[in-house]
């Protein structure tokens, strides 16, 4: 009966680094196999797996002894039965040998938590001289450990990961008899940063967005929780988010959505993470105590963090493609607990950076004479959005250059005037928004041009004009009316034509009047002579 319980225990004892993972039962065998080995399914190269024999038998018989890889006497005295030890377990009180430990572990009241505590105590008392070390089989994507004697073993990932996107594997308690396969127990979270793309109203999430200066840009950070968290004493992770100079965080916009493994929102969660904002350096942190969160609902498997930031006047603005610098990046990464043996929950793990980009663009305007093609000064323009509102602008300090104003800007204007260069720039334009350029006043002696509807286009059919990661602008064109294939850096050309010439006094005009007057006088004389002759007759 005890042997069966011990076998069942070994099958159920699975924990990550601070934990134990057992994937097979203790079994009784009649003869020693010719070869014993542990094969660890783990495709990550560079780990250091070692195995130590804990018991010299594969079943909990009375003759079971401590294995050659463990100092069982110190394990019992210093930790399992020592009330001052963090690994103390009252169930071992009075136990003095390996057989007694095995019997306690097969008792009806032995729990998974007891197994975790036992596993945590082992690493302190292993005997390095009796370590069985692994080698990596790259072709198979697995580690192999040759074992001299059958028995009950603990397998330890002996490497500590600091700053890497890795976590220590689980302790694995395993009966070894012949070739024994086990699966690495590595648990680590993931982070993905996304930006809402408002183009064409699809409101999709991805790595690239484009907006008008002054817009509130929406972001989402998706993180996962590894299942192995349950075996840590303390498990935390922290989102680190770095905005570019072109963003101002809307601090009150942060909100958190908790999801289960099927992406179904988990309701009734009152937990709130610790938020720390550094507005000067344009970065913030959000720290989650995952153990506390799961205590409220163990079904939580994912966290989505939402916030918005205003695209401000410091944003980099693209004029033309190709461009890989004016992309206003936003970067996030996650640091996380990655060593279950560390009771402090130190965040030594770090995910790769997840980066998104937000683009904004420039309208280039050209004011010319429709006949001579000369540049024209004195034209006044206003820019309207899709709803007909006149947009406020601010001068940038560069000649003929303006940008869309934000709510914090002062000294704004609504009308710009061209100088003798006839060229002007309006920075901070969104793509796919149908703007209207209105000529409020034409240059002297010229007729006013009609309103010009335009929009900037980053797409070519179904092909998006950005690189796959969104960091490079490959295509930017300007559409006048419904369609145009002009490059955006050429911009809009607005022509003015002069009106018809009105007559003035003097010159040919007076000669005409004098000629007509003379004709009238001559006509009157002829008429008088004719009348006199008629009377004589």
Give the tally of β-strands.
Answer: 34
The domain tally reads: 4
* Helicity range: 10-25%
Distance between the termini: 165 Å
* Rg result: 41 Å
In terms of per-residue confidence, which ranges show pLDDT below 50 for 5 or more consecutive residues? 7-33, 507-522, 526-537
Q: Which structural category do the helix and sheet elements fall into?
A: alpha+beta
Major sheet characteristics: 8 strands, mixed
- The neighbouring-strand order within the major sheet is 1-7-6-3-4-5-2-8
Shape: elongated
Strand coverage percent: 25-35%
Mean pLDDT: 87
- The DSSP helix count reads 6
Give a brief description.
By secondary structure, the protein is of the alpha+beta class.
Outline the structure in words.
The structure is a single chain. By secondary structure, the chain is an alpha+beta fold. Helices cover 14% and strands 33% of the residues. It has an eight-stranded mixed β-sheet with strand order 1-7-6-3-4-5-2-8. Strands 11, 13, 16, 17, 19, 20 and 21 form a seven-stranded mixed β-sheet that branches. It starts with a helix and ends with a helix. Mean pLDDT is 87; it is low at 7-33, 507-522 and 526-537.
